[in-house]
Write a structure and sequence with these properties.
about 40% helix; antibiotic resistance; Beta-lactamase; cell wall biogenesis/degradation; single chain; alpha+beta; Penicillin-binding protein 2a (Domain 2); 3 domains; serine-type D-Ala-D-Ala carboxypeptidase activity; seven-stranded mixed sheet
């Protein structure tokens, strides 16, 4: 039993202990409230402006709305390039970051059926090149996946599905080199163009019409002001400015002809150009092989891209705009120069024994036994090399090159399409400048028959032939006849531009046309494969050597890359030409057997199947 004294003492100790603990609790609470007060002071007074601005930015967000590119139509009003809706997945780098960002990416990986590490790595790479803009993580989503992501929107802060216009090309491969294609802007371009309003998700025209008229086809972006919560989720739309579609183009090109010409080149490497000689308008331009422009939206695998670049037929190159040796098609320029300079008359006869001797060197005709006695028209009909060797020597390289440049060779045609080359018209000054050695007479003979250093493009040849058969008027090739605004109204109209005339009299042009008609319709014409029953066709074959050979070997027996190039140029009807066609088959062999039959098939289609156009 405790005594009363002991009980009193115990009670006093308890009271003292309670007071002591109460004192400590008071001190702790004071310090805690002091710390809280200091923290509030720091957040509200010192960091107040910073957090107010941050809160303002997080509460309102501007979303850029992609603008549809303008449409491209053919002369019939048929769509050549347009837009279809596509769902794209964007991720906000300001929201999706750190541990919480990893959780969002893991959920996305599950929905997309991808591995999280791979998805995260792709996101980090794209984020570095986005300059703070929303990252395009995946495009062309199907509707089921869009629905799944939308249903889980609450758990995916910073993730947004946008409906974007996707480029659509009905012609596919047939229109690849004419229309070009679009692809996403790359990192280096973004750094250069970011100040102009470009973002990582934007498209740029890369070739053809898409590149040449990029400034017109590209529309004006829209903007959407939205309210978001603290986790970056959109709560409501505050305001919206709709995007404006770009200007549309109406081309002079006919999609029916475009498809037909590309089909004729199927399995071959080459190009075909169709012009209206009356004003220089382009009716069709194809290069084969081509690629489907839509593939550049989807992207290529490393193996696919390597295969494309190693293809000996070079599907990425627009061969209609690239320079090649023209072969015998250039003999018309040599004849024009000789007639105008008075070194020959159309009636003058030259004997062809199968070769031409210049000093101690023999320059052989393509026909070993020779053509016998030939005049101008007969020489064009049978494409006698010996005849044009003599013309070339008589004219001389400086005069020949001068006339060739006046005929439109050695410079771009004026079409303006990206990638067009000027070709080369050699002369004495050129060789001395480039090779530091003087010109030789034998080189003049080679140029006279379209060989040597001379190169021209299929488009240049079409432009020259158009001028030859229309009375000498050199028109710039053109292929955009109208530019339409966003409402479909005509904003600007284009038309023919005559840049000069051929350096030839009407009489000279008549004789050359007579020779071209004989080349297709004559008994020994090299272009007989292009002959029609009811329509008179004029034309000229060309066979251009790719490599020099001491002994002539049949082209088909050579390796592909050493085979001759085949040419044929044609116009019809001869009495009143309405079309000019140039066919080029790379490493195709002889012009008469490889290129002229293709021209004949199209001419029959045009005049007998499709019908002529006014």
């Amino acid at each position: 039993m405790f005594s009363r004294y002991q009980l009193k003492r115990t009670k006093a100790d308890i009271d003292e202990l309670f007071v002591q603990r109460l004192r400590w609790i008071t001190v702790f609470l004071f310090l805690a409230f002091l710390g809280l007060w200091l923290k509030l002071l720091f957040l509200q007074i010192i960091k107040g402006p910073y957090y107010r601005e941050l809160a303002r930015k997080r509460s309102l967000k501007v979303i850029t709305l992609a603008a549809p590119r303008g449409n491209i139509y053919d002369r019939r009003g048929l769509l050549l390039a347009g837009n279809t809706p596509s769902f794209s997945l964007f991720v906000d780098p300001g929201t999706v970051k750190g541990p919480q960002g990893d959780k969002v990416l893991k959920r996305l990986a599950e929905l997309l059926g991808e591995e999280f590490p791979g998805l995260k790595q792709r996101y980090l790479v794209l984020r570095r090149g986005s300059l703070g803009n929303p990252v395009l993580l995946k495009e062309d989503l199907d509707r089921d996946l869009v629905a799944k992501i939308a249903a889980r929107r609450f758990f995916l802060p910073g993730v947004e599905i946008r409906v974007e216009p996707k480029r659509y090309y009905p012609l596919g491969e047939a229109g690849f080199h004419l229309l070009g294609y679009v692809s996403r802007i790359n990192a280096s371009e973004l750094k250069r163009l970011a100040s102009s309003g470009f973002e990582a998700s934007d498209f740029l025209g890369r070739a053809g019409v898409e590149a040449q008229f990029e400034q017109y086809l590209r529309g004006k972006k829209g903007r959407r002001l939205v309210e978001v919560d603290a986790r970056g989720r959109i709560r409501r739309v505050v305001a919206e400015e709709a995007p404006q579609i770009g200007k549309s183009l109406v081309l002079t090109v006919d999609s029916v002809f475009e498809r037909k010409l590309y089909a004729l080149l199927s399995g071959r490497s080459g190009a075909m150009v169709l012009l209206d000689p009356r004003d220089g308008r382009l009716l069709a331009l194809v290069s084969a092989p081509g690629l489907n422009p839509a593939r550049f939206l989807e992207g290529f695998s490393h193996e696919e891209w390597r295969k494309i670049n190693r293809d000996v037929k070079h599907p990425l190159l627009n061969k209609a705009l690239l320079p090649y040796h023209p072969g015998s098609t250039f003999k018309l320029v040599t004849a024009l120069a000789a007639l105008e300079k008075g070194v020959i008359t159309p009636q003058k006869v030259i004997f062809c024994p199968g070769y031409y001797r210049l000093g101690r060197r023999l320059f052989r005709c393509w026909r070993p036994g020779g053509h016998g006695k030939v005049s101008l028209v007969e020489a064009i009909e049978v494409s006698c090399d010996t005849y044009f060797y003599q013309l070339g020597e008589a004219v001389g390289i400086d005069t020949l090159s001068q006339v060739a440049r006046a005929c439109g060779f050695g410079r771009p045609t004026g079409l303006g399409m990206p990638g067009e080359k000027a070709g080369l018209v050699p002369d004495r000054a050129w060789k001395l400048r480039v090779f530091k050695v003087p010109w030789q007479k034998g080189e003049t003979l080679n140029v006279a028959i379209g060989q040597g250093a001379l190169t021209v493009t299929p488009l240049q040849l079409a432009k020259f032939l158009a001028a030859l058969v229309n009375g000498g008027h050199l028109f710039k090739p053109w292929y955009v006849q109208q530019i339409l605004d966003a409402y479909g109204e005509v904003w600007r109209e284009e038309g023919p531009v005559e840049e000069g005339k051929l350096p030839a009299t009407a009489q000279t042009l008549r004789w050359l046309k007579k020779g071209l008609v004989a080349a297709v319709n004559g008994e020994h014409g090299t272009g007989r494969a292009a002959r029609l029953k009811k329509i008179t066709v004029g034309g000229k074959t060309g066979t251009a050597q790719v490599v020099g050979m001491k002994k002539r070997i049949k082209s088909e027996k050579l390796p592909y890359l050493k085979r001759d190039h085949a040419w044929f140029m044609a116009f019809a009807p001869a009495e009143k030409p309405e079309i000019v066609l140039v066919v080029f088959v790379e490493h195709g062999g002889h012009g008469g057997s490889a290129a002229a039959p293709l021209a004949g098939k199209f001419l029959r289609f045009y005049f007998e199947g499709q019908g002529s156009s006014s």
